[in-house]
Design brief:
This protein is an alpha+beta fold. The protein has three helices and six strands; from the N terminus they run βββαββααβ. A hairpin with a 2-residue loop joins strand 1 and strand 2. The longest helix has 23 residues.
Length: about 140
């Protein structure tokens, strides 16, 4: 996997993935940025969440669960001193579907966290990662 990152100005950077997608990262105005994009650490958290959610949806669909939507709310704490690594990350999954079973959703989240999501397994070496979920019945 390859990524290319180009410094744009001040604390703005344009990152391009091997698959050809680009994202602008920037800092806050008080740090010299113009707030034109997410911070690098936010990108790291979003990437981990995307990785985990991909797994959960894939596992649920593979088990023939009628999943219609999934939203994940993440709350993370960072160390107060440099390096300001993540110390705690909590993922709250809101899974919408028809007749979803709690044990299926719980199993999908656990498999992602412990076996499939490389990003969360890697971040879990440094941070305490916890999960919970709620199920919403689709109309």
């Amino acid at each position: 996997m390859k990524v290319r990152l180009k410094w744009v100005e001040a604390v703005s950077f344009l990152a391009q993935s091997e698959s050809g997608h680009a994202v602008l990262m920037d800092g806050p105005p008080e740090g010299g940025g113009r707030n034109l994009g997410p911070r690098p650490m936010e990108m790291l958290l979003m990437g981990m969440t995307g990785c985990s959610t991909y797994d959960v949806i894939h596992i649920l669909k593979k088990s023939r669960a009628d999943v219609r939507d999934c939203v994940v709310e993440v709350d993370a704490d960072r160390a107060d001193v440099d390096p300001k690594v993540f110390t705690k990350i909590h993922l709250h999954f809101i899974v919408t579907g028809r007749a979803l079973k709690a044990d299926q959703v719980e199993r999908a989240i656990k498999l992602s966290a412990e076996k499939y999501c490389s990003a969360s397994i890697m971040l879990g070496k440094m941070a305490e990662i916890t999960h919970d979920f709620e199920i919403v019945e689709a109309d």
